[in-house]
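Write out this protein's structure.
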Amino acid sequence: MTVNNTELLTYLYTFLTDNRKATFEKVLTQRTRHLTVVLEDIYQKHNTSAVVRNCDIFGIQDLHIIENKYNSYVSNQVAKGSQKWIDFHEYNQKEYNTKDCINTLRSNGYQIIATTPHNDSCILQDFDITKKSALVFGVEKAGVSDYILKEADGYLKIPMVGFTESLNISVAVAIILQDLTSRLRNSTVNWQLSDKEKNEKRLDWAKKTINNVDEIIERYIKTEKGC
């Protein structure tokens, strides 16, 4: 039996408190896929976990993780449960995972922006927020790969005036997302999720919130069948 997701969502919402439903709506109004974050070969789980938390805090719905050399792990102690609320896209099954990720993002209308302190990089406050952008971050010292640097449509840097050239990756992500998402929300850019996307997240989040949800859905299906 094919389940009607709209009807299923209505049913599952009867198991949620008014406060939880209101929180969903509040968060959904701030969620975006206009910007997305890409992590390339980040091997320290506390950094990955902190980036996950940043994405949730600043309203980024999707996080793309490229695993060429290392496997990424999320620490719940650092992420604070934020991993439940964003969508992960992992690239670890092919020989050229970075290329696969870039091709996928471009097919979805994103320009590829490498974060790097390179002199030709655009300074954060001058970055054009009108285009859909995938922001690629690499490890602290090495940065993004040569392939990303070659394939990128643009480069972005945080202005720094000290002796040190790099920030911890989670700090860099937070600074960039805070600036760009703040400007987006004060712009005329169509940055919010579509109504269809919002309904998909309502259903997804409801399933992640309700205890024993699989049993509840199974009972719902049986009732719909008239069993």
